[in-house]
Fold this protein.
Amino acid sequence: MTDQTSTSGLILEDVTLVHGDGEEDVRALDAISLTVEPGELVAVVGPSGSGKSSLLAVAGALTAPTSGRVSVAGVDLAALDRRRLTRLRRDHIGFVFQSANLIPALTALDQVRLPLTFADTGRPRDPASLLDEVGMSHRANKRPHQLSGGERQRVGIARALVTNPQLLLVDEPTAALDRQRSQEIVGLLARETHTRGVATVMVTHDHAVLHHCDRVLEMTDGRLADHTPTAGVDS
Amino acid sequence: MFLALRELRFARGRFALMGAVVALIAILMVLLSGLSEGLVNDGVSGLKKMPATSFAFQENVSKDAAFSRSLVGAGAVESWKHQPGVADATPFGNALANATTNGGVDIDLALFGVEPGSWLAPRATNGSSVVDEGTVLLSSTAKKAGVELGDVLTVAPAGNTLKVVGFLDGQHTFGHVDVGYVPLRTWQEVRAGVRPGEAVQSRVYEEFTAVAVRAAAGADLDLAAGDTAAGTTSLTLKQSFGASPGFTAETSTLNLIQGFLYAISALVVGAFFTVITIHRRQEVAVLRAMGASTGSLLRDSLAQSLILLLLATGLGVGAGVLLGAALTGTSMPFHLDPQPIAVASAALIALGMVGAATAVLRITRVDPLTALGGNR
Ligand SMILES: Nc1ncnc2c1ncn2[C@@H]1O[C@H](COP(=O)(O)OP(=O)(O)OP(=O)(O)O)[C@@H](O)[C@H]1O
Ligand SMILES: [Mg+2]
């Protein structure tokens, strides 16, 4: 569409995603426009089936939108083929998954080193000190089955950040955690987002963690509305 | 390789189980190869060691019984001598016989009749050769049966006598019995059942089994043209193995079993890696979402299969060779030869990789999108 120079972070312009072919179309995303600046933590809430995961998939270069423009780290995704999209995910996008989705065979430290084995990425962070930063250095040699849910999520966050991505996409990070642990994890995400200048989008059902976020967006039937609570309302 | 090696170590129990199956198959391969080689030796080592390029048999003789059925005459030898590319041609007689030594040892023999002094006549370890009528050079393996130098063999049914004047170097057997080289005239008398002292019809001395043909160095023989000229049917030395009693049946049975083993191992390895790959689907989706390329994931998985196959086959072959060494020298026809074992191991690994590759290709069908949303 346009070839204006984008800032880094995430830009969605008029993005629509339609699932299905012909008769029973589902508009998972309906003309969404959204800009997430570096250093900004944006939460997306909304009922089940409203399109939150679809938003992450489109922003994360996993699904091509039916129409509209997606730009990540200043690159228009429409211009990239599959190989380049894979490379863009590798170099500039970090994912934190719902249940951490760690690799069973790897120790905590190796989980964090793993993304760096895919290729020589630009300016990676040191896995050991990053593990320390998320408070997991004392469990560095433990495998996922030896870690608690919160610990796994910390390792997952370190793994997503080790390549120094410009965009961090987080899918319900606290779904399996208790209240206390949830606060810690989202607090950690907020801290990393702010100190590292990464643009972060977090999908969540957990309203108790929204006070960590710079903006809260509500999704209903594929449409986004700003729903940022006034400061100090929560907890 | 980062992930592949760590997964091998992490799931070592599972991989060890698979490796054990491959190793057992490799052991079986080695034993079969040794048995096959042993049977081949028993069947045709006497032929293998002959300096002939091809044999010209009676025209239209049935190929799987050529040595027992064929009869040719001196004319065929002359004709073959003058074929282009032929260095020399000489008569060859082949017959199975039962004999008894003066020590009372019964022994089955394959009597090879050759012209004394011809290129087909071998030399014994003690230097003697096929010269005098009524003498025989025996395969060294006959010693194990209890035959000694200087023994006199009485050949059934006519009672011709053969004096053992030497033993050949190594194993010379044909159709699972020991070879004895005798002068052609003696061979003709034994075959015709001429009793000692009996008058011999001159026709007896005109026939033998085949013309042994030796090609000149580097020459390629036109067997068909030679056959047309001489009125014979030729088999190369190698083809003539099939005319040794039982040879084709034995080797084809063993080859069939080997083929099945290859197929089984490819299927087992394929099934194993299919289960492993399906088990890894979520993990692969996560890796692809994180930006691992399909190519690198495939390479890693194939490297993992190759390491497993190499280790398992190596261990299996090692164990098989040790087991085989224990069998060598027993009454079982068993002979370990590095070359067929190397070929069999390579085939085992290659087919295992084919099985693994078809399984691992499932990786390309994993959608990285399934990494999102926990359970989709
Ligand atoms: N591959 C697909 N094919 C067809 N329809 C789909 C597909 N993926 C999602 N949808 C539909 O798109 C809509 C949005 O789905 P999405 O997964 O984005 O919702 P969500 O907000 O993440 O829900 P949840 O909170 O339950 O995870 C839903 O109506 C869903 O049924
Ligand atoms: Mg979802």
DSSP finds eleven helices and ten strands in chain B. Residues 73 and 207 of chain B are 5 Å apart (CA to CA). Chain B touches chain A at residues 2-3, 6-7, 9-11, 282-283, 286-294, 296, 368-369, 371-374 (CB under 8 Å). The pocket of magnesium ion (ligand 2) is lined by residues A 52-53; B 373 (CB under 6 Å).
